[in-house]
Amino acid sequence: MTRPPLTWTRDTVSAALPTDDARSWFDAALTDAAQASPTWELRFAAAGRHCGNDHADAVRALLLVEATSGIDTLNRLYQHGSAAERRAVLRALPALVEGPHAVHLVEDALRSNDTRLIAAAVGPYAAAHLDPHAWRHAVLKCLFTGVPLDAVANLPQRAAGDGELARMLTDYAAERTAAGREVPDDLGRVLTLTGEEPKEL
Fold it and tell me: pTM here?
């Protein structure tokens, strides 16, 4: 069974960590995860404190992969985790879950207004497994919350020829214009990807 690798690797994350203490902690955490030590989930929660918030998402995602976390573990860590811990779960999904078994986690994140969580939710796993209706609404959610559409994995491929997405985008632009609000720049770009030419937006 082949799944896409994470963007991060152990070596690149270790090299980016700010101190020797952080690197030592990271190495020990990965060992705990690989051995399914009872402490690895505690380390998952503590990653920001030991490795810095800038690196915590990558550290946590690698811990999930090293532990070969199944759907039950991912569900538990997501449901009981902070927003930062939830982001890591979402980003690790492509490397851990084959099939649509974790779509409910993506859908939950898309119901939030946390832009970093939404950006994590529209990555490769969502591109592969969200149905067309849910994926279109994810694109609109990004526009509505100001999440750059560059965060949406495989956007050109999924948007290509999607007339329903084009209709939804056009309607959204008309609503914004009628309310005297600015139309997001990204809207015209994704509308072009559907095969529709942007009109006066």
Answer: 0.91
Token pair of 188 as six digits: 């015209």
Give CA–CA dist 184/201, Å, rounded.
Answer: 9
My answer on whether 153 and 92 are in the same domain is no
Range of the domain at 74: 1-98
Statement to judge: residues 29 and 70 lie in one domain: yes
12-41 tens-digit pLDDT = 999 999 999 999 999 999 999 999 999 999
14 within a domain of the structure (yes/no): yes
Residue 176 in tokens = 């914004």
Residue 191 lies in a domain: yes
Secondary structure, 3-state, the chain: CCCCCCCCCHHHHHHHCCCHHHHHHHHHHHHHHHCCCCCHHHHHHHHHHHHCHHHHHHHHHHHHHHCCCCHHHHHHHHHHCCHHHHHHHHHHHHHHCCCHHHHHHHHHHHCCCCHHHHHHHCCHHHHHHCCHHHHHHHHHHHHHHCCCHHHCCCHHHHHCCCHHHHHHHHHHHHHHHHCCCCCCHHHHHHHHHCCCCCCCC
CA distance 120 to 131: 17
CA distance 80 to 126: 21
